[in-house]
């Protein structure tokens, strides 16, 4: 059996600094921005010539934070509450025989001065993620609206998100530096990133977006953001 050695072509600089609260699928948080920095010898303007004609790109990447944990034949998808086991090949779990993921992102722009950078939006990638390959997204063949989603079908309504006066004040103070942070928080929490087995309504959660730590909890009315502080 043949084997291959793969070399990253770039690395991601992302607003998501930790795995928790990253959207479970790409495109769910349009305000989630990232920059793909191409690495030598691939950081050449010629390598991305023509890519600016496309609105979205496919990214093959490595689950670098969980790769050392190996693979599992069955996993517990959060979509099923974390209580039911499904075959790994019927999921998008990180615990795969080869720790490779696939994501689609909106291409906001391309910079070629002082290196090559792809400006992305709607990304679901952890900061530092190694990128193995980049391909243009083709709407006429890659989008299949008639496809079935199995157990992952999502008809649930977004969770309402509210902010404490302290959180609103903090966001107002950093609006010039991070103007889209408030909307990003709303989009992330609207997907309810809590583990499927979460039952303690009083528990406070934390997530790091850009250089800020966001503290929040859930109640009967949705998510309640209590504070936004420099991490």
Structural shape? globular
Helices and strands, in N-to-C order?
EEEEEEEEHEHHEEE
Number of helices: 3
Mean pLDDT: 92
Percent in strands:
25-35%
Alpha-carbon distance between the two ends: 47 Å
Plain-language structure description:
This protein is mostly beta strands and about 230 residues long. Helix content is about 10%, strand content about 30%. A hairpin with a 2-residue loop joins strand 11 and strand 12. The N and C termini lie far apart (about 45 Å). The relative contact order is 0.22.
Could you write a compact summary of the structure shown?
With 231 residues, this protein is mainly beta. 10% of the residues lie in helices and 31% in strands.
């Amino acid at each position: 059996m043949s084997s291959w050695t793969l070399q990253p072509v770039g690395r991601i600089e992302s607003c998501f600094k930790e795995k928790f609260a990253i959207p479970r699928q790409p495109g769910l948080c349009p305000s989630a921005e990232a920059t793909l920095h191409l690495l030598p010898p691939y950081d050449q303007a010629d390598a991305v010539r023509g890519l600016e004609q496309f609105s979205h790109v496919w990214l093959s990447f490595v689950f670098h934070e969980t790769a050392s944990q190996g693979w599992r034949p069955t996993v517990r998808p959060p979509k099923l509450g974390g209580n039911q086991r499904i075959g790994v090949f019927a999921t998008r779990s990180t615990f795969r025989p080869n720790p490779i993921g696939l994501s689609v992102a909106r291409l906001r722009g391309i910079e070629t001065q002082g290196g090559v950078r792809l400006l992305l939006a709607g990304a679901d990638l952890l900061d530092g993620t190694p990128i193995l390959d980049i391909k243009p997204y083709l709407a006429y063949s890659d989008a299949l609206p008639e496809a079935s989603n199995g157990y992952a079908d999502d008809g649930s309504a977004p969770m309402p998100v509210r902010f404490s006066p302290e959180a609103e004040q903090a966001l107002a103070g950093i609006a010039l530096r991070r103007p889209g942070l408030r909307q990003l928080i709303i989009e992330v929490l609207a997907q309810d990133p809590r583990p499927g087995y979460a039952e303690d309504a009083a528990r406070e959660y934390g997530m790091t977006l850009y250089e800020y730590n966001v503290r929040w909890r859930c109640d009967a009315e949705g998510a309640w953001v209590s504070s936004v502080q420099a991490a």
